[in-house]
Amino acid sequence: MSHNSKRKSEFGLIFQLLIGIAAGVVIGLICNEAAMEVIASIKHVLGQIIFYTVPLVIIAFIAPAITRLGQNASKMLAAGVSFAYLSAVGAATMAAIAGYMIIPHLSIATQMEGLKEIPEVMFQLNIPPIMPVMTALFTAILLGVATLWSNAKTFEKILGEFEGIMMNVVTKVVIPVLPFFIATTFAGLAYEGSLTKQLPVFLQVIGIVLLGHIIWLTVLYAIGGLISGRNPIEVIRHYPPAYLTAVGTMSSAATLPVALECASKSSVLSRNTVEFMVPLGATIHLCGSVLTETFFAMTISQMLYGHLPELHTMILFIALFGIFAIGAPGVPGGTVMASLGIVVSVLGFDPAGVALLLAIFALQDSFGTACNVTGDGALALMLEGIFNRNGELQAEKVSA
Predict the structure, then answer these.
(1) 88, 286 in Cβ contact below 8 A?
(2) What residues in the chain have per-residue pLDDT under 50?
(3) Which of helix, strand or coil describes residue 195?
(4) Alpha-carbon span 333 to 25, nearest angstrom
(5) In angstroms, how far is the first alpha carbon of the chain from the final one?
(6) Alpha helices, DSSP H only, in the chain?
(7) According to the model, what pLDDT value does residue 339 have?
(8) How far apart are CA 226 and CA 210, in angstroms?
(9) Cβ distance 103 to 398 under 8 Å?
(10) Do 344 and 378 touch, CB atoms closer than 8 A?
C-alpha cells in the first residue's frame, strides 16, 4: 500500500469514528425508551464480538513477537513492564503534586443529579472470551518463551500463521464494526444524561486532568525520543485513529487492533517492537487512567471528608496503584475497579466516596484510556532505543 493510500485509510477511519460519535450523541438525545432498548442490544452484541477477539489478538501478536526477539525476549519483557510501572507511578505522582497545589483553591459543585436509566437489552447474545485478558497475556508470554526454550520451529511457524489469521480478523471484522460500537456507546451516554447533566459539574476537574494527560504524554515521548535517538513525532502523528477509538470504546483492549495498525505505520518503530509492546501496553500500561483516578480521588477526599490525604498515605497509594494498574483489565473502568481495594483500605473511602469516584471516573474514562493507548507508542520508542538502537530490525517493518 502506498504512503498516500495509508494516509487516506487513516483519515477515513478517523472520519468514520467522528461520524459514529456525532451520530450516537444525536440519537441518544432524541430517542425514546423503546429505541434505546434496540441500541443497547446492538451495543451489547457488538461489544461481545469485539471483546471476544481481544485475548486471541494478544496471544497472536505477543507470542510470535517473543519468538522473533530470540534471546532479547526476557530482557524486553522486563524492560516493558518496568517502563509501564514507572510511567503509572510518574503520572500518579504528577497528579498528586498538582492535587496538593490546585484542589484547595477549587470550588467544585457537588450535586450529582440522577441519571435516566438505560433500559435492559431486549436481545442478549453472549460470546464470552475464551480467557481473561491477563490470562491471555500470561499465556502469550509463556508460549513465546517456551517455544524459544524448546527451539520448536514448527510451533513457531504455527504462531506466525496464527498472527496472520488474527490480523485478517482485525481488519475484516473488528475495525469495520468499531464505528457502530462507538455510536451506540455515545448514544447511551447522551440518553442517560451523562453528557448534559453530570459533565458540567466536574468540568473544571476534568479540564485539569486532560491537561495532565497532555503534559504526561509530552514527557513520555520526550523520554522516548532521548532514549531512542529518533523523532517521537514520527510515532505520535500516526496515533489519532487509536486515540479516537479509545475515546469511543473506553477500552485499551478494544482499541488494540487500531493501535497496532497506527504504530505499525511509524518509520521509526520495528515490527518486533510494535507487536510486542503495543499489546503488552494495552494490558499493563494505564498511565492516563492512573493520573485521572489519583487526582479525582484527592478531589473527592476534599469534597466529602474535608481534607486531602496525608502525604505518606498518597505515597503508599501511588506505589501500590502502579502494581494494581499493571494487573487491571483493559476494559471500560478496569483501572478503577482493580484499585477499589486500595481506595478503601489506604485512602479510607466509604461507600459514598467509592460511588462518587466511579461516577466521575466514568465521565472521562474514554480520555484516560486514550492517554493510555497513545502512551504505548512512547514505551515502544523506549524499547527501540534499548534493543534496536541501530535499526537492525527495520527490514521487518509491517507493511500496513
Answers:
(1) yes
(2) 1-8, 10, 109-113, 394-400
(3) helix
(4) 21
(5) 7
(6) 3-30, 33-69, 73-102, 133-150, 153-169, 175-192, 203-228, 233-236, 240-249, 252-264, 271-284, 287-305, 311-327, 334-345, 351-387
(7) 77
(8) 24
(9) no
(10) no
- The residues near 141 (Cβ < 8 Å, ≥ 6 apart) are 62, 63, 66, 77
Residue 360 CA to residue 51 CA, distance in Å, equals 24
Q: CA–CA separation, 28 vs 24, rounded Å?
A: 6
Residue 356 confidence (pLDDT): 72
Among 344, 349, 347, residue whose Cα is nearest residue 312 = 347
In the Cβ-directed half-sphere of 334, how many Cα atoms lie within 13 Å? 29
Number of residues in the chain: 400
Of the candidates 370, 77, 385, the residue with the CA atom closest to the CA atom of residue 223: 385
CA 79 from centre of chain? 19
| Closest residue by Cα to residue 297 from 283, 316, 271 | 316
Separation CA 22–CA 11 (nearest Å): 16
Query: Which element (helix H / strand E) includes 130?
Result: none
- Give residue 215's identity as a one-letter amino acid code: I
Q: Measure the CA–CA gap between 331 and 67, rounded to whole angstroms.
A: 27
Q: Which three cell numbers stand for residue 354?
A: 467509592
CB 112 within 8 A of CB 198: yes
